[in-house]
Amino acid sequence: MRGKRGNTFIIVMLILILLLLLVIFLTIIYLSPSFSGGEGLVKKTRDGVEDTATKIEEKFGAFKGERIEELKPEQLPIGVDSGRVLYNIENETLTLMNYERTRRNLQALRLDERIANVAFSHSREMNLNDYINHTNLASKGPGDRISDQEIFALCSSENIYFIESREPRENLAERAVQGWLDSPGHRKNLLDPNITTAGIGIYCQDRKCYVTANHICTKTALQEELQDRYVYFFSLYPEEINFNTKVMANFDLSLTTRADLYIVPDKEQYLNYVDRQEYLFSKQYLDVEGIRDTVVVEKGYGLMVIPSSDGEIRIQLEYS
User: Which structural domain, as residue segments, surrounds residue 128?
Assistant: First the structure.
């Protein structure tokens, strides 16, 4: 009898131990956050940006950080969407993004609240409709959504981070940036040397948080061989921008010959000059080899160049 009772006791204890291990295992799974998002691959076209995304999942270890409290709508800066109560975490995310960029000798990104509002709207829509994609329910990609707000951009890209856990806001900025760095497509977007400006939008509800980062580039450069007795026209407002807004164009121009330069409001003025008719210009630079200046331009504006001899022109443009 003692032998049977002893065996029964051992079996009961083993069952209890197995049940305890099962409870611990299920608890660990329940509390573990997940990472999901698009690969962040961006296809640049003249008409904007086309994106596709595939879902990936990855687990992360613990992060050191301090939780940031939500802001109330009345505490938000002017121009910020009233729903962006996680404004502090959005700014922390951009700060960490810039830390990763500057430590690699890349330019820090400027914050544009208009872009952040676009990013927030996408995060909110994805959360409320339970999906993850760079294309929204209206079939618009990040380039389309940015253009709809008449934000001047020569190119655009987007990163998305998703987490579902008991405390999704805890260390959210660190988790998002680390997640992007660990994903090749997201990493390429984050560390793109061509982007100059960004906006972060975060929307959390229940156990889910969506973080969207939209980036744009506002710099371009061109180089062209010049011939004597020719007149050249270089557009200062890219044709692919499908809306008209006034922007500041900061340009750094150098020549290997001397030339007369004119800022003209449209290509028609260049054609008038070629036909030896009267033409209009807003600014002129006569007999120069290089200039640095800032001008206000809008759709149609261009630079007319009349070289004195054969040579080369190089122009670096940045819009703001």
Answer: 78-217
CA–CA dist 160, 132 (Å, integer): 8
Q: In this structure, what CATH number is given to the domain that contains residue 271?
A: 2.60.120.380
- Within a domain: 224: yes
**pLDDT value at position 25?**
62
Q: Residue 287: in which H helix or E strand, if any?
A: strand 283-297
Q: Are residues 90 and 211 in the same domain?
A: yes
Same domain, 315 and 251: yes
- Which residue among 183, 201, 217 closes a domain? 217
The answer to whether the CB of 50 falls within 8 A of the CB of 141 is yes
| pLDDT digits 0-9 by tens, 73-126 | 444 455 666 678 788 899 999 999 999 999 999 999 999 999 999 999 999 999
Q: What is the DSSP letter of 82?
A: T
Q: Are 182 and 291 in a shared domain?
A: no
Q: Look up the pTM and report it.
A: 0.71
Which residues of the chain register pLDDT less than 70? 1-7, 12, 23-82
Q: Are residues 84 and 213 in the same domain?
A: yes
Which of 178-206 are b and which e, b meaning 16 or more Cβ less than 10 Å from the residue's Cβ?
bbbeebebbbbbbebebbbbbbbbbbbee
Query: In this structure, are 203 and 257 located in the same domain?
Result: no
